């Protein structure tokens, strides 16, 4: 079965401990609902650097990555459907879905 990278971009940070607990509960429920298709729940990421042939920038680029997960899905459409339930969408973020090509 193909694997898909769910790359998370943006999303606001919780401002209170209570809001943080709600957000974590939403992520846990969503990931739990993915069942065995969730290969790697991933992690949030810190500040990134962009490396090109001529420079290194530390501004995170045009659309900075905020985290990732790895998911088994039968098709791109199935992976997109799973991503549509991601809690980051309710916090102003987005999810990029891309197949991880076996080499």
Notable features of this structure?
alpha+beta, flat, two-stranded antiparallel sheet, single chain, 6 strands, Alpha-Beta Plaits
Assign a percent range to the helix content: 10-25%
The CATH architecture: 2-Layer Sandwich
Mean pLDDT: 93
The succession of helices and strands, N to C, reads EHEEEEHE
Determine the strand fraction and express it as a percent band.
Answer: 25-35%
- Point out poorly predicted stretches: none
Compact description:
This protein is α+β, with helices and mostly antiparallel strands.
Describe the structure.
The chain has 103 residues and is of the alpha+beta class. It has a single domain (3-44, 64-100), classed as Alpha-Beta Plaits, CATH 3.30.70.1060. 24% of the residues lie in helices and 32% in strands. It contains two helices and six strands. The protein has helices at residues 17-33, 76-83; strands at residues 3-9, 38-44, 50-51, 56-57, 65-72, 94-100. Strands 2-5-1-6 form a four-stranded antiparallel β-sheet, with helices on one face. A hairpin with a 4-residue loop joins strand 3 and strand 4 (56-57). The radius of gyration is 15 Å and the shape is flat. It starts with a strand and ends with a strand. 14% of the residues are buried. The mean pLDDT is 93.
What are the SSEs and their pairings?
Blueprint: E1 3-9, H1 17-33, E2 38-44, E3 50-51, E4 56-57, E5 65-72, H2 76-83, E6 94-100
Antiparallel strand pairs: 1-5, 1-6, 2-5, 3-4
């Amino acid at each position: 079965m193909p694997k898909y990278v769910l790359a998370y971009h943006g999303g606001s940070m919780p401002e209170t401990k209570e809001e943080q607990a709600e957000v974590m509960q939403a992520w846990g429920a969503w990931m739990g609902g993915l069942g065995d298709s969730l290969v790697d729940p991933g992690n949030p990421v810190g500040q990134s650097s962009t490396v090109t042939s001529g420079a290194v920038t530390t501004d995170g680029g045009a659309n900075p990555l905020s985290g990732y997960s790895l998911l088994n899905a039968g098709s791109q459409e199935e992976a997109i459907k799973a991503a549509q339930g991601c809690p980051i969408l309710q916090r102003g973020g987005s999810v990029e879905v891309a197949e991880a090509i076996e080499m």
